[in-house]
């Protein structure tokens, strides 16, 4: 199946992924996702503004992006982070950021790999990302999408179609026969993950 040649629309660098969150029941704040970070970080100014309690001493030492090291003020554990209706318990190191009081860095938290792992977060960009976003906080989705609105189901169909068209287009460019590739993959999966035999019932 061939498609007419078309240029992909250019997209500017998003620079960072920011999501709206609520910390400990606060108003909506900005949470910046960072796959490079092995910790979650909250500025001291924001900690004080939110009126949180429970700081604990820490021996952690942070290596910043500019290759300088900083000792965190302290750390705080099990802070409830609300994301799209889902509560995620999160530990933070609290860092004193010496910037101007109106600097955006003082009023947003950094969410690293620990948060993403706890939230079972998937980050994708492009067609697959748009499809994954629909199911990001849905958990296990039952067959037939009961309880979903008709327009929501239609939206799922549209995003699935976009992904399918992209795959067909990509397979054509790469010279991959999708029918044969799928059958071979099914055979490989059957060998690698054999289905358990159904126990025979006594006659």
Automatic annotation (TrEMBL):
InterPro entries in alphabetical order: DCTPP
SUPFAM superfamilies per UniProt: all-alpha NTP pyrophosphatases (SSF101386)
GO term, biological process aspect, one: nucleoside triphosphate catabolic process
Gene Ontology molecular function terms on file: nucleoside triphosphate diphosphatase activity
Domain of life according to the entry: Eukaryota
Xref: PANTHER family: DCTP PYROPHOSPHATASE 1, PTHR14552
Name of the protein in question: NTP pyrophosphohydrolase MazG putative catalytic core domain-containing protein
Source organism (scientific name): Acer saccharum (Sugar maple)
